[in-house]
User: What shape does this take?
Amino acid sequence: MEDTWSYHRAKTYDKTGRRWHFVTHNFFPAAGEDEPREYYFRDDEGTEFGVLRFDSIKDNPYRDFAAIKAKIMLNAPFRRSLLDDSTRSVWRKHWK
Assistant: This one.
């Protein structure tokens, strides 16, 4: 399955002024297969790393990417459930 990574260059801040970075990992499955999607995030300080995964893009309950970003940045209990320090390595890619 082919895939692409998209770093979102727009500067994104939460209500406290903390900066966040986001990357979307898109997959391109064969016809008839489910299309998974992953949204990676980290704070500017490099203290929180996480990922929101959907096995199928149809499973995504959020209306758009802006809603996903807001939920991750503004809902600390939700964000804590997504934290995964092993995703730190994703941020070593060249698209930073």
Remarks:
- The helical segments are 65-74, 76-82.
- The beta strands are 2-13, 19-28, 37-43, 49-54.
- Residues 2-92 form one domain.
